Amino acid sequence: MATVDILCVVDAKSLVEKYPSATSASTRQTLTHADIHPYARMVTHDGQAMSNHASDDLVVRAHPGDIIRWRAISITDDKESKIAVGGFTSVNTQLYTQPVHIPSLDLWQSSAIAVGSDTYWVNFNATYEGTTCYFWWDPGINISLP
């Protein structure tokens, strides 16, 4: 069993400035690949990226039994600029357990349970200079046989 760590690095300042009307969960902005591309990157360890390493649409490789962990930070991770993941929605709920938040580690964790591919939705908040905006993002995951 391995651990697949995914780090999401997001430009909170630029997202808040570009989407100032996304200031509540009811006005949450859905970000397509073209929308988020300039503002977010996802990275993982060598060998765990199947495609799009260091992009906004990273596809990682995991095997049944592996632990998958997500963390998010702002490029300028300081008092004025923060990223907070609020949760995950999966299209294919048969592939991995529903991610749970582990506050003590400031990450989300899941377990791979089956083979297949999924595009999942991450809801997250970007805060800059006291303004918080709400977003959806749709990266992918691929779980394969060892």
How are the SSEs placed, and which strands pair?
Layout: E1 3-10, H1 12-18, E2 29-30, H2 33-36, E3 40-43, E4 49-51, E5 59-62, E6 67-74, E7 81-90, E8 100-102, E9 107-111, E10 116-128, E11 131-137, E12 140-143
Parallel strand pairs: 1-6, 2-11, 5-12
Antiparallel strand pairs: 1-3, 4-5, 6-9, 7-10, 8-9, 10-11, 10-12
Mean pLDDT: 85
Q: Output the CATH homologous superfamily.
A: Inclusion body protein
What is the N-to-C succession of helices and strands?
EHEHEEEEEEEEEE
Based on secondary structure, the structural category is mainly beta
Top-tier CATH class = Mainly Beta
Poorly predicted runs: none
Separation, N- and C-terminal Cα atoms = 10 Å
Quaternary: single chain
- Work out the number of β strands: 12
Total discrete domains? 1
Based on CA atoms alone, the radius of gyration comes out at 15 Å
**Do you know the CATH architecture?**
Sandwich
Helix proportion of residues, in percent?
under 10%
Q: What's the CATH topology label? A: Immunoglobulin-like
Biggest sheet details: 7 strands, mixed
Pfam family, one: PixA
Organism: Entotheonella factor
Protein name: Inclusion body protein
Question: What report would you give on this structure?
Answer:
The chain has one domain: Immunoglobulin-like. The radius of gyration is 15 Å and the shape is elongated. It starts with a strand and ends with a strand. The chain has helices at 12-18, 33-36, and strands at 3-10, 29-30, 40-43, 49-51, 59-62, 67-74, 81-90, 100-102, 107-111, 116-128, 131-137, 140-143. It has 2 helices and 12 strands, in the order βαβαββββββββββ. With 146 residues, it is mostly beta strands. The strands form 2 sheets. Strands 2, 4, 5, 7, 10, 11 and 12 form a 7-stranded mixed β-sheet that branches. A 5-stranded mixed β-sheet has the order 3-1-6-9-8.
